[in-house]
Write a structure and sequence with these properties.
The complex is a heterodimer of chains A (448) and B (479). Chain A is built from 11 helices and 18 strands. With 448 residues, chain A is α+β, with helices and mostly antiparallel strands. A 6-stranded mixed β-sheet of chain A has the order 9-18-17-16-12-15. Chain B is globular, with a radius of gyration of 23 Å. In chain B, the strands form 6 sheets. In chain B, strands 1, 2, 3, 4, 5, 6 and 19 form a 7-stranded mixed β-sheet that branches. The model of chain B has no long low-confidence stretch (mean pLDDT 95). With 479 residues, chain B is of the alpha/beta class. Classes of the chains: A alpha+beta (448), B alpha/beta (479). The interface between A and B is medium-sized, with 18 and 19 residues.
């Protein structure tokens, strides 16, 4: 029997992924542990390893195929004594829709999402321009008939709605939730007269393109990470009532302590120090300790209850080519600066290689976003759901301050805390920032 | 400490044993504590043996109407009450045995006795003091016995028992619960059934078919109170035609026991009635078995006599879960099974969806059968839904006519705005076997379009379902 190579689930919630490339060709010998292919999800790239021995008889899903459902057959391995050619015969072809390649250059492979509605459906006669504009391109969207109808009649783009049904299917509650969040649209007159198509809440791609002369731009299709960033940040800015608190911190003591700690670092056999603590490592630790001191701020909002976290899991935004990701230092309050520093170096390296595991970037109660290295004085960040706060770090710089009634020069840093007002009220956010500032300005407290 | 488990389930009914099998499939070391009979009320004293009794009644009815089908039966058509009951016990025993086999096959330990939760993670099992209902099936071989058992997760699946009305306390002789009604020494000549829910109506239907004079007393204005009013009215007409006397909005005010019967006084707003009867069946609902489990000492939260849970079976105490009847209505075996599976999968860290209680079907196996899922018309309107309603009678269905079952109705209710199927209600032959078609449709969130476009096989009773949908959209063919 030939062995099916299945699309793996890289996380419990993963429904589909992109098959970015094959590292083996048809006819190649395979032994267990060989890397067969690379799978890209919204956040990470993972390798598919062979479990069995044999010959790669057939590549069922070609490289560059987007949105391959988990557990679909992506290739076949011929076992010992089997003829790879006969194995390659399409006796175990996956479901046709799953094997579709969605490359724009092969229009025949595209799947239409909107099946024509019978004329009997009384209210479905006025086609929504948005639905059809978005419906003809891109991968097939799995949605229940009821979800499709409500989306169509409300002018919602199904592709923009995350499905919570079986296998990520978009179901009624997803659409009604999206509808509840969508900005109020002009009231359509009740009654029997067929109303004009509802104007879209977001202009269609076509409308945006018309602003620019043909040939004056290059079109780069979004990868999954870009789509995820867009979806999550829209969700965050639409659903989370943000407010912002800014405070200035004096870094003089911290810079001195940092120098002393780094000078004291033991050297490895190549003569390099085994750790080098950054200002950011101090910030992660200080924020974690501040959350433990102000437990009211160490929370996550849910509709039914407040989740009060027992540890401070601090995310750190890491910019990577064409995106960003926020790996999380778990229970950061319990970790030493050198441990935090080591974890961050590892996270940053693996984030750039897109090798982070989902459990390394999901959850957390807050995050740190640092643009100080670019000279940004201060800014405010969008909260990364389900977290309740995010701390935006500006540059450390020499500033003239007033100290004991006299002008003085000090190394100063402005930080801005964005808070989810559903979970963290103004005074709680202020208390958190005050605790943070105290730790930064008296950094020896972090070593206790 | 005798033994330590990942998951220990108190109660081996349909909720408990199904949860146990699923837990074992997921790799948990699992045990079930049972004090009386594997399979619970459902397959020992409920769903299953009553279906066996009703099957006897159905065949008896067909024999009596053999002439309608061109058949002749020689001699007197009669029955042997003891043999009918015996058959139902054999059916029950076979399934009871089957549950023991399934648990063994899945390497689930069975602990025989009464369980008390002494603290989260610990269960004390003692020898059961509750006298087993007779006739009792054999206790499975190789069970564990009394002792203290440890478990990371404890599922309470203790089910429910008949509700007792003051003044109408069952005595096992004149006033029966479903237990005695299911295994009588002889069938009574006259019978009052108090309560017209599924249990009451099924017994009323069974005994009427066997020739008993049956009176049904319901406190609410409608029999089968959970069902759509139109369906219940249709069923009532049929029952009355069969000779069942029905009082609604009625209350028993006085019971006088005599040596060989009862004199019951009832009021129904129109007057006071005095009825003489041989037996009374009290079928006024069931209550959760929450007692003697140690729940109070642990501070487990209960609401309206059942354990409060969160949709994944979790109680307010970590490590303690409740599923099935003891976790609240609807108190149905199929709901318990799903809750058990959902609870265990959530413990495993899988991502089960909480049970949508608006899509749990209900079936009553009286003659004619009643089956439904979703909202009744009254409830839909109460929720402010703008509805489209379709109806199709069995008289327009070829298969129903051929079967000699032309009395029936399929009613479908759609949300006019979205085409969502919000309710389906049926009365008639075999409708309990039909309702799952609508259940699947609702779970897949079909609209009327998919139902209309689906090809229903001809000739089947299911075509009446199709026609009902067509009727809701003004397109009915055979009417």
């Amino acid at each position: 029997m030939p062995i099916d190579i299945l699309m793996p689930a890289l996380s419990p919630t993963m429904e589909k992924g992109n098959l970015s490339r094959w590292l083996k060709k048809e006819g190649d010998k395979i032994k267990p542990g060989d890397v067969l292919a690379e799978i890209e999800t919204d956040k990470a790239t993972m390798e598919v390893e062979a479990v069995d021995e044999g010959v790669l008889a057939k590549i069922v899903v070609p490289a560059g195929t987007a949105d391959v459902p988990v557990n679909n057959v992506i290739g076949l391995i011929a076992g010992e004594g089997e003829d790879p050619k006969s194995v390659a015969a399409p006796h175990t072809m996956p479901h046709p829709s799953a094997a579709q390649s969605h490359q724009p250059s092969s229009p025949s492979a595209q799947v239409r999402q909107e099946s024509p509605t019978p004329a009997s459906a009384p209210s479905a006669s006025a086609p929504s321009p948005i639905a059809s504009a978005n419906g003809q391109h891109g991968p097939r969207i799995f949605a229940s008939p009821l979800a499709r109808r409500i989306a169509k009649e409300s002018g919602l783009d199904l592709a923009a709605i995350a499905g919570s049904g079986p296998h990520g299917r978009v179901i009624e509650r997803d659409v009604t939730a999206a509808l509840a969040k969508a900005p109020a649209r002009p009231a359509v007159e009740e009654g029997r007269a067929p109303s004009a198509p509802v104007p879209p809440s977001i202009p269609s791609d076509e409308v945006i393109r018309q602003n620019y002369a043909l040939g004056s731009f290059e079109e780069v299709p979004h990868d999954l990470m870009r789509k995820t960033i867009a979806r999550r940040l829209i969700e965050a800015s639409r659903t989370i009532p943000h407010f912002y608190l800014t405070i200035d911190c004096n870094l003089d003591a911290l810079m001195n302590l940092r120098e002393a700690i780094n000078e004291a670092a033991p050297k490895d056999k190549d003569g390099k120090p085994v750790y080098k603590i950054s200002v950011n490592d101090f910030i992660v630790k200080a924020l974690a300790l501040a959350l433990i001191r102000v437990p009211d701020a160490n929370v996550t909002w849910t509709e039914s209850a407040m989740l009060r976290h027992k540890h401070a899991d601090v995310g750190v935004a890491v910019a990577i080519p064409s995106g960003l990701i926020t790996p999380i230092v778990r229970a950061a309050e319990t970790k030493t600066l050198s441990v935090i520093s080591g974890e961050m170096k590892d996270f940053a390296a693996r984030a750039r290689a897109r090798k982070l595991r989902p459990e390394e970037y999901q959850g957390g109660s807050t995050a740190v976003s640092n643009l100080g290295m670019f000279g940004i004085k201060s800014f405010s960040a969008i909260i990364n759901p389900p977290q309740a706060t995010i701390l935006a770090i500006g540059a450390g710089e020499q500033r003239a301050i007033v100290k004991n009634g006299a002008p003085a020069v000090a190394m100063m840093m402005s930080v801005t805390l964005s808070c989810d007002h559903r979970a963290v009220d103004g005074a709680v956010g202020a208390a958190l920032l005050a605790a943070f500032k105290a730790l930064i300005e008296q950094p020896a407290g972090m070593l206790a | 400490m005798a033994e330590s488990y990942d998951i220990l389930i108190i109660g081996g009914g349909p909720g408990g044993y199904v949860a146990a099998i699923r837990a074992a499939q997921l790799g948990f070391k699992t045990a079930v504590v049972e004090r009386e009979h594997l399979g619970g009320i459902c397959l020992n004293w409920g769903c299953i043996p009553t279906k066996a009794l009703l099957r006897s009644a159905e065949i008896f009815h067909h024999l009596n109407h053999a002439k309608d089908y061109g058949l002749t039966v020689e001699g007197k058509i009669g029955f042997d009450a003891a043999a009918i009951v015996q058959r139902s016990r054999v059916v029950s025993a076979q399934l009871n045995n089957g549950v023991g086999f399934l648990l063994k096959k899945n390497k689930v330990d069975v602990i025989w006795g009464e369980a008390t939760i002494t603290k989260p993670g610990e269960v004390l099992v003692s020898t059961s003091k509750k006298p087993a209902m007779q006739p009792q099936h054999a206790i499975p071989k190789r069970t564990l016995g009394a002792g203290t058992y440890a478990a990371k997760h404890i599922l309470i699946a203790t089910g429910a028992r008949p509700r007792v009305l003051p003044g109408l306390e069952p005595d096992g002789k004149l006033i029966w619960t479903y237990f005695e009604a299911m295994a009588p020494e002889k069938f009574p000549d006259s019978l009052i059934v108090i309560g017209s829910g599924a249990i009451g109506i099924e017994f009323a239907s069974f005994y009427r078919s066997m020739g008993t004079k049956v009176t049904v007393i319901e406190i609410l204005p409608q029999i089968l109170p959970a069902e759509d009013a139109e369906i219940a009215a249709h069923a009532r007409k049929r029952f009355e035609k069969q000779g069942i006397e029905i009082f609604t909005s009625a209350k028993v005010t006085k019971i006088e026991k005599k040596p060989e019967g009862i004199v019951a006084t009832l009021e129904d707003g129109k007057g006071t009635w005095v009825l003489e009867t041989e037996r009374i069946i009290s079928a006024v609902g069931v209550v959760g078995n929450v007692e003697n489990l140690g729940l109070e000492a642990l501070g487990v939260k209960t609401e309206h006599g059942v354990i409060a849970t969160d949709g994944l079976g979790r109680t307010n105490i970590a490590g303690l879960y409740a599923i099935g009847d003891v976790a609240g209505p609807p108190m149905l075996a199929h709901k318990a099974e799903h809750e058990g599976v959902i609870c265990v999968e959530a413990i495993k860290g899988l991502d089960p969806h909480p049970l949508d209680k608006t899509m749990i079907p209900g079936c009553t196996y009286c003659s004619p059968q009643v089956a439904s899922v979703g909202l009744t018309e009254a409830k839909a309107k109460e929720l402010g839904l703008d509805v489209k309603i379709g109806r199709f009678p069995f008289i327009g269905n070829g298969k129903a006519i051929a079967l000699g079952e032309p009395d029936g109705l399929v009613k479908t209710i759609f949300d006019a705005k979205t085409g969502k199927l919000v309710g389906a209600h049926m009365v008639g032959a075999e409708v309990t076997e039909l309702i799952q078609g609508f259940v699947i449709a609702m779970n897949c969130e079909t609209t009327e379009v998919e139902l209309i476009n689906s090809v229903f096989p001809h000739p089947t009773l299911s075509e009446a379902m199709h026609e009902s949908v067509l009727d809701a959209y003004g397109r009915v063919i055979h009417m």
